[in-house]
Amino acid sequence: MDYLATHELTQRLNDIVNNTIRARADDPFAYMAQQFLAIAQPPTISHVTVSNILDQTGSFRSLQADVYSWQPSSFVHLGRGVWPSATEGDNVAELCNLITSQLKLKPLKSESLSELDKTLSDLKEPNASVVIPAVSLAISRAVAHATRQDLYLFLHKRSNPEKLPNAVVSLPLVDIVKSNKLSFG
How far apart are CA 125 and CA 139, in angstroms? Predict the structure, then answer.
């Protein structure tokens, strides 16, 4: 009984069912799922992996960072960032362990993104500047995924908080096609 009272389960379930009935949604279960997602806790970072990527010739190096969260029965991939790397990055494994220890159990929500970026920028290890952009991009994608937003719109809102939330974000290829500047020949 304490568990029900602590988490207000009966009241919240009642509210969700009542909202679904009032909305008369075509798919009541999908509507209720959206309601549950709105009140759910954001996922937390369980670990970060970083790996070197080579092109076909083995000459061009990039770093790939992946952010994972632990869900009830397995790890869930939430975001990936790839960044070109000019250095070999000998200590990538050590940096990966250090980054994971710094970010573990941090919530993935847009309010905490500045804190996560500050944690990354405070790393003073050798080659950290090579790994940080890839991890930062992976975290941005993970937060956009966790908050159920398109990455471009999420980044636009982060960089322009004073703009209206329903502002149109331009996509370069769409703009080129619309303006007939695309030529095939």
Answer: 20
